[in-house]
Amino acid sequence: MKIDHEPTAEEQVKEPHIKAENAPREYTQFSTRYDPDTSAIWCWMKPEPRPCLNTTLIDELVQLQYQLTTTYKTQHPDTIWPFRHLIVASKTPGIYNLGGDLALFKRCIENREIERLRDYAYKCINLLHRNIDNLDLPITTVSLIQGQALGGGFEMALSSDVIVAERSSQVGFPEILFNLFPGMGAYNLLTRRIGSALAERIILSGETYNAGELYNMGVIDVLAEDGEGEQAVEDYLKSHNQSHNTIRSIKKIRQIVHPITRQNLYDIVDIWVDAAMDLSDKDLAKMERLLHLQKDMKDSKTIEQQNNVLKPRRGDWRKVNDVSFPLITHLGENVSRNRRKNQSRRRD
User: Which residues contact 238 (CB under 8 A, 6 or more apart)?
Assistant: First the structure.
């Protein structure tokens, strides 16, 4: 699908992958569906070969972001495009996302490919910053964590307006275990939610927290029982639909009070890249062990054994099927305007 958005000069330098001619033609690392009841697009990640932020997943998510923005902004003046929420979740049982591509990190460090590592990190920043800015649209972004969200996976969830997590989910930043730190926005995003002192404590601890602990700290917004995460998201969206205007205003105020600029994130990434290139052989050996752990955790049977409290997910309609433009519901119906508003008019 061709993207009509023209990148800015800065984006052309640091986001060459978003140009239409270089964009992936189809989504291979996630599937999408539209839910007309909540005016929401669900994005279900399933990256291969490991459930981490590989470059293909990042490029495809960026393409989706630009496609949604372009579609929204180029709609016909008489059309009310019913899109208010973007939810990012995972189809990998027991795993939201395990973070950065450690195989790429290790290879770049060993081969001294500093610019390749920096390019990967900039791509992550571009993805997360557009999410922080709500794709420059009047929408709410939501992350649904069902299982483990580590490192960059946790940072991606933090870039959303709202985090919903099931109680047994395990979340944290393991980077300190191999003498590094989470450099894709963790400090900024955590500080905005809970303050710098507690943010540093979480980052430097290297610990994995359960969702209940982070909910009590104020990191997670909605705590759901295991197997009820999707319902909790829907309940949240329906309860806040009537306050959409207020919520949008509060988000603008948040950006004024606690701004997170793309340039600041780039500057932090540069520090992260320099630190990564200084890792010792011992540090890289520890990274290798975590890489093997990423590979092992891809086995859903292992995940189910480790998290035997997880329940099957509800609803077949969200499993697979790409969203198309104009929107198509799970019943195969075209959606070009807000049907609920039309129905209310007919009742009147």
Answer: 37, 38
Determine the Cα–Cα distance for residues 348 and 345; give it in Å rounded to an integer.
5
Beta bridge partners of 41: 34, 86
Give DSSP secondary structure letters for 210-272: EHHHHHHHTS-SEEE-TT-HHHHHHHHHHHHGGGHHHHHHHHHHHHHHS---HHHHHHHHHHH
Domain at 29-347: CATH code:
3.90.226.10
Cα 128 off chain centre by = 7
- Sign of the CA dihedral running 285, 286, 291, 293: positive
Q: Report the DSSP beta bridge partners of residue 222.
A: 164
**pLDDT of the chain along its 348 residues, tens only?**
333 333 443 444 354 444 443 454 589 999 999 998 888 999 999 999 999 999 999 999 999 999 999 888 887 766 666 788 999 999 999 999 999 999 999 999 999 999 999 999 999 999 999 999 999 998 999 999 999 999 999 999 999 999 999 999 999 999 999 999 999 999 999 999 999 999 999 999 999 999 999 999 999 999 999 999 999 999 999 888 777 778 778 888 888 988 999 999 999 999 999 999 999 999 999 999 988 887 776 654 444 444 433 333 333 333 323 455 545 554 555 555 444 344 433 333
Is the backbone peptide bond immediately before 138 cis, with ω within 30 degrees of 0? no
CA 183 to chain centre: 15
CA atoms within 13 A on the CB side of 139: 27
Q: What b/e readout covers 315-341, taking b as 16+ CB neighbours within 10 angstroms? A: eeebeeeebeeebbbeeeeebeebeee
CA distances from 153 to 111, 174, 211, 293, 302 (A): 25, 11, 14, 15, 20
What gap in Å lies between CA 61 and CA 89, rounded to an integer? 12
Q: Where are the domains of the chain?
A: 29-347
Pairwise CA distance, residues 110 & 108, whole Å: 6
- For residues 110 and 284, is the Cβ–Cβ distance under 8 A? yes
List the one residue out of 186, 89, 176, 57 whose CA is nearest residue 132.
186
